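Entry:
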Amino acid sequence: MKIFKSEQVREADAFTIKKEPISSINLMERAAKKASTWIKQNFPKNTKVAILVGPGNNGGDGLVVARHLLESGFHVQVFDLEISNNYSSDFLINKTRLQKFNNGIFIPWTKNINLSQFDLIIDAILGSGLTRPITGNLAQIIQTLNQSSIKTIAIDIPSGLFGEDNSKNNHQNIVKANYTLTFQFPKLAFLLPENTQFVGKMEVFDIGVHPQYIENTATNFYLTQKENISTHFLHRELFSHKGSFGHALLVSGSKGKMGAAILAAKACLRSGVGLLSTFVPKEENIILQIAVPEVMTISNLDEIDIQNFISLGIGPGLGQSEASLELLIDILKIVKTPLVVDADALNLLAAHPQYLDLIPKGSIFTPHPKELERLIGKTSNHYLRLFKTLELAQKYQIYILIKGAYSVIVSPDGNFHFNSTGNPGMATAGSGDVLTGIITALLAQGLSSFEALQTAVFIHGLSGDLAKKDKGEIALIASDIIDNIGESFKQFGI
C-alpha cells in the first residue's frame, strides 16, 4: 500500500471527485459512513457521545458521523468550536441535514461544558492539512480534552498532528486519541513511535479513492501487506532436492550466548533453507549439535569455503570480544555476496566504522533502536531518524531494517517500506535472532536482498501474531515465533 503525503491525499480526493465522478459531499458521506459503522460495531447504543467539530471538511465528517449515530439511537451532542467563520460548503450542507433532529444537537462550545457527562468524545476538529502548531483557545480545549479519561476517537487524524514531520510541532496541543479512524491510507506520522500517544489504535477504511491516482502517483513510503509478498515464494517442484533451496551459513554464538545461535538456526531451517551450516566456537559445538541436529557445524575458519554458501548471516550471540572482531573482519575480507548483519556484528561495526567499507553492496542490517543509534548517532525524533538512516543506506548501498512496531526497511533507492504485521509481545529476547534466521534462509533460496528482507519481516511478524493468539503478549517468547513460521507460510498456500 502506498502512503501519501497530506497534500497528495487532498489531490487524491480531488482526482476521485473529478474522475469517478462523485460530488465532494457524497465522498464525505462515503468516508464518514465507514467511520460511523465502525463506531456502531464497537460501542453500545446507550453511549453518550460528544462530537467536537471545526469549520472545515474534517468537521463535516464529524457532522455526518453525528447524523448516522443519531439515526441508530445513540445520544449525541455536537459542539462547534467556532474556530473561524470560514465554514466549508460541505460542512454547512451537513449542518443543515442535522436539522431534522432537535435544535439542541448542535451548540457552540463554552468553557462551562462538562465533558465528564459523556462516554465517548469524537475529535473532528482539524484534518490533515494543518501546517502550524495549534495555539490559543483551541490549544486550551485540546489540553482539557487530553486531561480527561474519556475514550477519544479521532476522525482521519488527531487534531493538531501534522501528517508527516512533527519535529517542530507542540506536542502538548495535539489530541491524544484512543482510536484513529483514517481514510484510504495511513498517514506517515501514524507509523512513527513518537506519535503513538496521539494515534492510539489505527483503523484504515477504503473509501474508493480512484485507482488511477494511486497507481500513477509516486511516493517513497509504503506499507507492506500480504499481497506485496505473495509472489516472492519459491514453490517446490516434485523432483527438487535440498540443493535446490540453497546452503546458508550462520556465524553466531559464543560462551553463554548459544541460545541466539540455536534460535537463528531453527528459524532458518523452518524457513525452507536446503542446507544450513553454523560457525560456532569449538567448545560450544555440542550445544548446537544436540539442540538442532539438522545443522552442520564449523569451528575453524580455514574450513569455510565461501563459494559453498548462497547466503551468510552473522551476529546473533557473537559477542564483542577481540576474537569476534577478528572473525568478523576475516569474513568481510572474503565474502562478496550480500550479508545479513545483526546484533553483535552491528555493534562491532559501530565501534570500528572503518570496516563498513568492506560490507558487500546489497547487504542487510537489522538493528534495534539502540544498535542503530550506535551506527548513525542520536536524532531528536523518529522522522529525522528515517533520513539519517537513509544516508547510511545510500553511502554503503545496503538495506537497513529499523526494528520495532511497523518495522521499516530503509532502502538505498530512497524508499521506506513499513511492515503491517507483529505485536508488542515480540519485544522479547531472541526475537531478532529468529528474524536473522528467516532472512538468511530466504536469501539462500534465491530471493533478492529486498525481497528476502520484506518477506522475512512480514512472516516474522505474522508468526508473532499467530503466537499471540495462543500465548498472549506477556507470555510470548522467541521459540513461539519459530513454532508458528510454518503456519505463516501455509497462509500463502505453501
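The mean pLDDT is 96.
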